[in-house]
Amino acid sequence: MEILTIRDIARLAHVSVSTVSRVLNGRPDVSENTREAVMQVIRENNFTQNSNAKNLKQHHSEMISVVVRGRQNWFLTDVAERMIALDQDGQSRFLLDFINEHEDEFAAARRQYAERKLQGIVFLGSSPAGRESEVRSLPLPCVFTTVDTSAIQQKGISSVSVDNRESARIAVEHLIKNGHRKIAVMGGRRHIPDSIGERFLGILQAFRENGLEFDENLYVESHFAMPEAYKAAQAFLSLGRSFTAMFCMSDMMAIGAIKALSEHGMNVPDDISIVGFDNIPLARYLTPTLTTVSQPAQLLAETSMDLISRLIANPDDTENVILPSTLVEGGTVRHLGAQ
Prior knowledge:
single chain, 339 residues, six-stranded parallel sheet, six-stranded mixed sheet
Protein backbone atom coordinates (compact mmCIF):
# COMPACT_ATOMS: atom_id res chain seq x y z
CA MET A 1 0.00 0.00 0.00
CA GLU A 2 1.26 3.47 -0.87
CA ILE A 3 2.32 5.50 2.16
CA LEU A 4 0.66 8.90 2.08
CA THR A 5 2.16 12.07 3.49
CA ILE A 6 0.41 14.98 5.16
CA ARG A 7 0.72 16.80 1.84
CA ASP A 8 -1.19 14.00 0.08
CA ILE A 9 -3.97 14.20 2.68
CA ALA A 10 -4.21 17.96 2.16
CA ARG A 11 -4.49 17.50 -1.61
CA LEU A 12 -7.18 14.82 -1.33
CA ALA A 13 -9.18 16.83 1.22
CA HIS A 14 -8.79 20.07 -0.80
CA VAL A 15 -7.35 21.95 2.18
CA SER A 16 -3.96 23.41 3.10
CA VAL A 17 -1.16 21.43 4.71
CA SER A 18 -1.40 23.62 7.81
CA THR A 19 -5.12 22.77 8.14
CA VAL A 20 -4.33 19.04 8.11
CA SER A 21 -1.65 19.70 10.72
CA ARG A 22 -4.15 21.50 12.94
CA VAL A 23 -6.63 18.61 12.61
CA LEU A 24 -3.98 16.03 13.46
CA ASN A 25 -2.94 18.01 16.52
CA GLY A 26 -6.51 18.47 17.75
CA ARG A 27 -6.42 22.23 17.39
CA PRO A 28 -9.77 24.01 17.97
CA ASP A 29 -9.33 26.58 15.17
CA VAL A 30 -10.81 24.30 12.46
CA SER A 31 -14.49 24.14 11.50
CA GLU A 32 -16.29 20.87 12.15
CA ASN A 33 -17.06 20.40 8.44
CA THR A 34 -13.39 20.83 7.50
CA ARG A 35 -12.25 18.58 10.35
CA GLU A 36 -14.63 15.84 9.26
CA ALA A 37 -13.56 16.14 5.60
CA VAL A 38 -9.92 15.71 6.59
CA MET A 39 -10.67 12.81 8.94
CA GLN A 40 -12.71 11.08 6.23
CA VAL A 41 -9.71 11.15 3.88
CA ILE A 42 -7.48 9.90 6.69
CA ARG A 43 -9.83 6.99 7.45
CA GLU A 44 -10.25 6.04 3.80
CA ASN A 45 -6.49 5.91 3.26
CA ASN A 46 -5.44 4.39 6.60
CA PHE A 47 -3.14 7.36 7.12
CA THR A 48 -0.59 7.19 9.93
CA GLN A 49 1.61 10.16 10.70
CA ASN A 50 5.05 9.53 9.30
CA SER A 51 7.15 11.95 7.21
CA ASN A 52 5.55 15.26 8.16
CA ALA A 53 5.85 18.07 10.67
CA LYS A 54 5.99 15.54 13.50
CA ASN A 55 9.54 14.75 12.36
CA LEU A 56 10.59 17.91 14.16
CA LYS A 57 9.60 16.26 17.43
CA GLN A 58 10.61 12.71 16.61
CA HIS A 59 14.28 13.44 15.88
CA HIS A 60 15.59 14.95 19.05
CA SER A 61 19.02 15.64 17.58
CA GLU A 62 17.71 17.92 14.87
CA MET A 63 18.50 21.58 15.26
CA ILE A 64 16.61 24.11 13.16
CA SER A 65 18.17 27.54 12.75
CA VAL A 66 15.85 30.53 12.40
CA VAL A 67 17.69 33.58 11.04
CA VAL A 68 15.74 36.81 11.56
CA ARG A 69 16.96 39.68 9.38
CA GLY A 70 16.10 42.80 11.35
CA ARG A 71 16.70 43.05 15.07
CA GLN A 72 13.95 45.66 15.51
CA ASN A 73 11.39 44.20 13.12
CA TRP A 74 8.52 43.33 15.44
CA PHE A 75 6.59 41.42 12.80
CA LEU A 76 9.45 39.05 12.03
CA THR A 77 10.15 38.61 15.74
CA ASP A 78 6.49 37.72 16.29
CA VAL A 79 6.59 35.08 13.53
CA ALA A 80 9.81 33.61 14.97
CA GLU A 81 8.28 33.37 18.44
CA ARG A 82 5.22 31.66 16.99
CA MET A 83 7.49 29.09 15.30
CA ILE A 84 9.10 28.25 18.63
CA ALA A 85 5.71 28.09 20.36
CA LEU A 86 4.53 25.42 17.89
CA ASP A 87 6.88 22.98 19.60
CA GLN A 88 4.55 22.45 22.53
CA ASP A 89 6.43 19.37 23.77
CA GLY A 90 9.74 21.21 23.86
CA GLN A 91 11.46 18.36 22.01
CA SER A 92 12.70 20.32 19.01
CA ARG A 93 15.90 22.36 19.16
CA PHE A 94 15.87 25.84 17.67
CA LEU A 95 18.75 28.24 17.17
CA LEU A 96 17.52 31.83 16.89
CA ASP A 97 19.90 34.24 15.19
CA PHE A 98 18.92 37.92 14.96
CA ILE A 99 21.02 39.93 12.51
CA ASN A 100 20.95 43.53 11.32
CA GLU A 101 19.56 44.43 7.91
CA HIS A 102 23.05 45.12 6.55
CA GLU A 103 24.51 41.79 7.73
CA ASP A 104 24.96 38.73 5.50
CA GLU A 105 22.43 36.07 6.48
CA PHE A 106 23.92 33.45 4.14
CA ALA A 107 27.35 33.83 5.70
CA ALA A 108 25.65 33.41 9.07
CA ALA A 109 23.99 30.22 7.81
CA ARG A 110 27.28 28.76 6.60
CA ARG A 111 28.93 29.63 9.90
CA GLN A 112 26.16 27.97 11.89
CA TYR A 113 26.32 24.89 9.71
CA ALA A 114 30.06 24.58 10.36
CA GLU A 115 29.67 25.08 14.10
CA ARG A 116 26.43 23.25 14.84
CA LYS A 117 24.61 20.11 13.82
CA LEU A 118 21.98 21.86 11.75
CA GLN A 119 19.32 19.92 9.89
CA GLY A 120 17.64 22.92 8.28
CA ILE A 121 17.37 26.67 8.31
CA VAL A 122 14.49 29.14 8.08
CA PHE A 123 15.25 32.62 6.77
CA LEU A 124 12.87 35.28 8.06
CA GLY A 125 12.84 38.53 6.10
CA SER A 126 15.69 37.52 3.78
CA SER A 127 15.81 37.58 0.01
CA PRO A 128 17.83 35.42 -2.39
CA ALA A 129 17.45 37.97 -5.20
CA GLY A 130 20.79 38.42 -6.94
CA ARG A 131 22.39 35.73 -4.79
CA GLU A 132 20.72 32.64 -6.16
CA SER A 133 24.01 30.77 -6.66
CA GLU A 134 24.89 31.26 -2.98
CA VAL A 135 21.49 29.97 -1.91
CA ARG A 136 21.79 26.91 -4.15
CA SER A 137 25.19 26.12 -2.64
CA LEU A 138 23.93 26.10 0.96
CA PRO A 139 24.48 22.53 2.21
CA LEU A 140 21.16 22.11 4.03
CA PRO A 141 17.41 22.49 3.44
CA CYS A 142 16.16 26.09 3.52
CA VAL A 143 12.79 27.78 3.87
CA PHE A 144 12.35 31.46 3.05
CA THR A 145 9.52 33.07 5.00
CA THR A 146 7.91 36.27 3.60
CA VAL A 147 9.48 35.97 0.11
CA ASP A 148 8.56 33.76 -2.84
CA THR A 149 11.52 31.70 -4.13
CA SER A 150 9.68 29.81 -6.86
CA ALA A 151 12.00 31.29 -9.51
CA ILE A 152 14.99 29.45 -8.03
CA GLN A 153 13.58 25.99 -8.79
CA GLN A 154 16.06 24.16 -6.59
CA LYS A 155 15.45 21.07 -4.51
CA GLY A 156 15.84 21.68 -0.81
CA ILE A 157 14.53 25.26 -1.05
CA SER A 158 10.93 26.13 -0.21
CA SER A 159 9.16 29.37 0.65
CA VAL A 160 5.99 30.83 2.11
CA SER A 161 4.75 34.39 1.71
CA VAL A 162 1.76 36.51 0.88
CA ASP A 163 1.30 37.87 -2.63
CA ASN A 164 3.33 40.99 -1.98
CA ARG A 165 2.46 42.64 -5.28
CA GLU A 166 -1.29 42.18 -4.87
CA SER A 167 -1.18 43.16 -1.18
CA ALA A 168 0.50 46.49 -1.96
CA ARG A 169 -1.86 47.09 -4.88
CA ILE A 170 -4.85 46.68 -2.58
CA ALA A 171 -3.34 49.08 -0.02
CA VAL A 172 -2.76 51.86 -2.55
CA GLU A 173 -6.10 51.17 -4.25
CA HIS A 174 -7.72 51.85 -0.87
CA LEU A 175 -6.07 55.25 -0.70
CA ILE A 176 -7.04 56.09 -4.29
CA LYS A 177 -10.67 55.10 -3.65
CA ASN A 178 -10.63 57.50 -0.73
CA GLY A 179 -9.75 60.36 -3.04
CA HIS A 180 -5.98 60.47 -2.65
CA ARG A 181 -3.80 61.17 -5.68
CA LYS A 182 -0.58 62.55 -4.19
CA ILE A 183 0.52 59.41 -2.40
CA ALA A 184 3.99 59.08 -0.89
CA VAL A 185 5.54 55.65 -0.37
CA MET A 186 8.05 54.58 2.27
CA GLY A 187 9.90 51.33 1.62
CA GLY A 188 13.22 49.63 1.09
CA ARG A 189 15.30 49.25 -2.06
CA ARG A 190 12.57 48.91 -4.66
CA HIS A 191 14.50 47.86 -7.75
CA ILE A 192 15.49 44.42 -6.46
CA PRO A 193 13.14 41.53 -7.39
CA ASP A 194 12.28 40.58 -3.81
CA SER A 195 9.26 41.23 -1.57
CA ILE A 196 9.95 44.98 -1.56
CA GLY A 197 10.36 45.06 -5.32
CA GLU A 198 7.10 43.15 -5.68
CA ARG A 199 5.29 45.60 -3.40
CA PHE A 200 6.56 48.49 -5.46
CA LEU A 201 5.27 46.83 -8.63
CA GLY A 202 1.89 46.49 -6.94
CA ILE A 203 1.95 50.20 -6.14
CA LEU A 204 2.66 51.08 -9.76
CA GLN A 205 -0.11 48.73 -10.87
CA ALA A 206 -2.66 50.47 -8.63
CA PHE A 207 -1.70 53.86 -10.07
CA ARG A 208 -1.77 52.57 -13.64
CA GLU A 209 -5.17 50.90 -13.27
CA ASN A 210 -6.61 54.19 -12.05
CA GLY A 211 -5.11 56.26 -14.85
CA LEU A 212 -2.51 57.82 -12.57
CA GLU A 213 1.27 58.03 -12.52
CA PHE A 214 3.40 57.62 -9.42
CA ASP A 215 5.63 60.59 -8.59
CA GLU A 216 9.12 59.21 -7.99
CA ASN A 217 9.87 62.29 -5.87
CA LEU A 218 7.43 60.90 -3.31
CA TYR A 219 9.37 57.68 -2.68
CA VAL A 220 11.09 57.55 0.73
CA GLU A 221 13.75 54.85 1.10
CA SER A 222 14.34 53.55 4.60
CA HIS A 223 15.35 50.56 6.67
CA PHE A 224 12.45 48.80 8.38
CA ALA A 225 13.32 49.70 11.98
CA MET A 226 11.21 52.40 13.60
CA PRO A 227 14.07 54.84 14.42
CA GLU A 228 15.38 54.71 10.84
CA ALA A 229 11.88 55.23 9.43
CA TYR A 230 11.39 58.21 11.73
CA LYS A 231 14.66 59.77 10.53
CA ALA A 232 13.83 59.07 6.89
CA ALA A 233 10.40 60.66 7.30
CA GLN A 234 11.93 63.71 9.00
CA ALA A 235 14.33 64.19 6.09
CA PHE A 236 11.54 63.75 3.55
CA LEU A 237 9.23 66.22 5.29
CA SER A 238 11.99 68.82 5.38
CA LEU A 239 11.85 68.88 1.57
CA GLY A 240 8.37 70.38 1.71
CA ARG A 241 6.86 68.12 -0.95
CA SER A 242 3.07 68.03 -1.25
CA PHE A 243 1.21 64.80 -0.53
CA THR A 244 -2.04 63.77 1.19
CA ALA A 245 -1.30 60.13 2.02
CA MET A 246 1.55 57.70 2.60
CA PHE A 247 1.75 53.96 2.12
CA CYS A 248 4.43 52.43 4.33
CA MET A 249 5.78 48.96 3.50
CA SER A 250 5.72 48.01 7.18
CA ASP A 251 3.85 49.06 10.29
CA MET A 252 7.18 49.91 11.92
CA MET A 253 7.78 52.43 9.15
CA ALA A 254 4.25 53.78 9.54
CA ILE A 255 4.70 54.38 13.27
CA GLY A 256 8.00 56.17 12.71
CA ALA A 257 6.41 58.29 9.99
CA ILE A 258 3.44 59.19 12.19
CA LYS A 259 5.78 60.52 14.88
CA ALA A 260 7.68 62.61 12.34
CA LEU A 261 4.43 63.98 10.91
CA SER A 262 3.24 64.93 14.38
CA GLU A 263 6.49 66.79 15.09
CA HIS A 264 5.94 68.72 11.84
CA GLY A 265 2.50 69.79 13.06
CA MET A 266 0.55 67.35 10.88
CA ASN A 267 -2.27 65.18 12.18
CA VAL A 268 -3.17 61.66 11.03
CA PRO A 269 -5.61 61.33 9.32
CA ASP A 270 -6.86 64.94 9.13
CA ASP A 271 -3.76 66.17 7.30
CA ILE A 272 -2.10 62.96 6.08
CA SER A 273 -3.59 59.49 5.68
CA ILE A 274 -1.43 56.45 6.47
CA VAL A 275 -1.59 52.78 5.47
CA GLY A 276 0.90 50.27 6.90
CA PHE A 277 1.83 46.66 6.17
CA ASP A 278 2.03 43.62 8.51
CA ASN A 279 -0.68 44.28 11.16
CA ILE A 280 1.60 43.98 14.17
CA PRO A 281 -0.24 43.97 17.55
CA LEU A 282 0.83 47.55 18.30
CA ALA A 283 -1.13 48.74 15.25
CA ARG A 284 -4.37 48.03 17.10
CA TYR A 285 -3.33 50.13 20.09
CA LEU A 286 -2.45 53.33 18.23
CA THR A 287 -4.86 56.25 18.36
CA PRO A 288 -6.35 56.12 15.83
CA THR A 289 -5.79 52.45 15.01
CA LEU A 290 -3.64 51.87 11.96
CA THR A 291 -5.09 50.89 8.61
CA THR A 292 -2.78 48.13 7.44
CA VAL A 293 -2.32 45.05 5.29
CA SER A 294 -2.45 42.01 7.54
CA GLN A 295 0.01 39.17 6.98
CA PRO A 296 -1.17 35.92 8.67
CA ALA A 297 1.66 35.56 11.20
CA GLN A 298 0.41 32.30 12.72
CA LEU A 299 -0.09 30.64 9.35
CA LEU A 300 3.33 31.84 8.17
CA ALA A 301 4.88 30.21 11.24
CA GLU A 302 2.95 26.96 10.88
CA THR A 303 3.61 26.63 7.18
CA SER A 304 7.32 27.40 7.63
CA MET A 305 7.67 24.62 10.18
CA ASP A 306 5.79 22.19 7.98
CA LEU A 307 7.91 23.04 4.94
CA ILE A 308 11.24 22.70 6.74
CA SER A 309 10.24 19.38 8.33
CA ARG A 310 9.28 18.01 4.93
CA LEU A 311 12.56 19.15 3.37
CA ILE A 312 14.52 17.50 6.18
CA ALA A 313 12.70 14.25 5.45
CA ASN A 314 12.99 14.65 1.67
CA PRO A 315 14.90 17.52 -0.02
CA ASP A 316 12.90 16.90 -3.21
CA ASP A 317 9.67 17.82 -1.41
CA THR A 318 9.86 21.52 -2.23
CA GLU A 319 6.90 23.89 -2.35
CA ASN A 320 6.33 27.63 -2.66
CA VAL A 321 3.22 28.58 -0.72
CA ILE A 322 1.32 31.83 -1.23
CA LEU A 323 -0.96 32.80 1.66
CA PRO A 324 -3.82 35.33 1.63
CA SER A 325 -3.47 38.83 3.06
CA THR A 326 -6.27 41.21 4.04
CA LEU A 327 -6.69 44.95 4.39
CA VAL A 328 -7.58 45.88 7.96
CA GLU A 329 -9.28 49.26 8.04
CA GLY A 330 -8.45 51.44 11.02
CA GLY A 331 -8.76 55.16 11.57
CA THR A 332 -5.69 56.48 9.77
CA VAL A 333 -7.27 57.04 6.34
CA ARG A 334 -9.43 60.08 5.62
CA HIS A 335 -11.86 60.18 2.70
CA LEU A 336 -11.18 63.25 0.57
CA GLY A 337 -14.09 62.83 -1.83
CA ALA A 338 -13.93 63.02 -5.62
CA GLN A 339 -11.09 65.04 -7.15
